[in-house]
Amino acid sequence: MTLMAALIRCFLIASLLLPAASGTAVSTNLFQQLQIPEQGAYTGAYVDFGDGEDHVSLEALEKFEGLTGKPMAIVAFGSFWGRQSFPTEQVDLVRAYGAVPLLFWSPWDSPFDEKRGPDKFALTEILAGKWDAYIDTWADAAAKVPSQFFVSFACEMNGTWFPWSGWFYGKGPPDPHPDRKLTGNELSQATKEDILHPDENWFGKGDIKNPATWEGPETFKKAWRYVVNRVRARGATNILWVFQPNNYSDPPGYISWNQPAAYYPGPEYVDWLGLSVYGKQTMNSEDDKWCGFDKLLEWPYVEMTRIDPVKPIMLAEWGVTESHTPGEDKGAWIASAFAQMSTRYPRLKAAVFWHERWANDDGSYSNLRVNSSRASLKAYQEGVANPFWLGRPLWKAP
Q1: What is the pLDDT of residues 339-374, one digit of tens each?
Q2: Strand 357-359, strand 365-367: pairing
Q3: CA dist 190 → 178, 203, 218, 301, 309 (Å)
């Protein structure tokens, strides 16, 4: 048993011996509160925790730290509603390791297939109160965690792959310019105007269980507020809520309904702004082109700063696959990403790398791991070694 393993075992045993809190409420002065770094940003990772994204293990954490030469301030993993439980064991393990947990809390049932539309955890069912008991049980367990931790609820809602997307909930208003695709400042201004001054005829009203009255992104915002309100009411005020759209919207080109701003539930319901920022992820898809990191983050970052003028921003997921196509250099891509994140984006305060390898339906593999090649590993090691990247969380004094 390694020293780290022994220390974590002692931590977990001690936590089990602590007296249970009475009731469900937790006072904000009873848990550790995370600081937003004034200088630098937190580094972290999702470390290939299996098909369910929740098989957190000390071995995996130690192995990744050994590969990269730096500990993680944030460790991410999945928390699917299909499990019907709060991941207490995983949270305790991450905290014992010394990192802040980041839970991708997804209203999704097995087999977790993408692009199949809403399942029994549909946003409309959440709003109808069907899953109140689960939310309450989850929140009661969350309230017992003695430090703040991140929860990214229903991430990448502006895509078409997850069942909580506005695409599956009546989409949104028709594009008033169906033959003209706006970009850059023009799109940003159009989005702002449409959000501030929407046409009331765009969205239907009525029975929340009736698909004919689903309201696209409005359904998402209502569900987000409903869940957060219910969790907080149970005393789980130790959660840092992360609003995490994808860095591009799918389908693209629409003026307002599928842009991140259309899904934003409001500043009182969000603590951190997040983004998923991936380069090329597949080998054989004609639609998945190699793209430099600067083009992937620059415009989405600006959009996030416009959504809220002060909240910290994190890359809740970032990464790129190993490519064997000439000119597609993963090592150079990672080196460029680290250099840009540390110099061009002052509100970026955390970045969580997606370290995973998976098989695709066509027999190819997507390898986003930092050690997919010597060049990739070297670039990651050198990038994260910059003192800008903080390998341990900073906690506020009680």
Answers
A1: 999 999 999 999 999 999 999 888 889 999 999 999
A2: antiparallel
A3: 14, 18, 18, 17, 19
CB 78 within 8 Å of CB 56:
no
The string over 203-214, giving b where at least 16 C-beta atoms fall within 10 Å of a residue's C-beta and e elsewhere, is: beeeebeeeeeb
Q: Which amino acid is at 76?
A: A
Which residues have C-beta within 8 Å of that of residue 287, sequence separation ≥ 6? none
Is there a contact between 94 and 72 (Cβ–Cβ < 8 Å)?
no
Tell me what the pLDDT averaged over the chain comes to. 85
What does the pLDDT average to over 188-198? 40
Contact criterion met (CB below 8 Å) for 318 and 102: no
For 48, the token pair is 């290939």
Q: What is the pTM of this model?
A: 0.85
The SS3 assignment for 366 reads strand
At 313, is the secondary structure helix, strand, or coil? strand
DSSP state of 29: G
Answer yes or no: CATH 3.20.20.80 is held by domain 30-390.
yes
Residue boundaries of the structural domains of the chain:
30-390
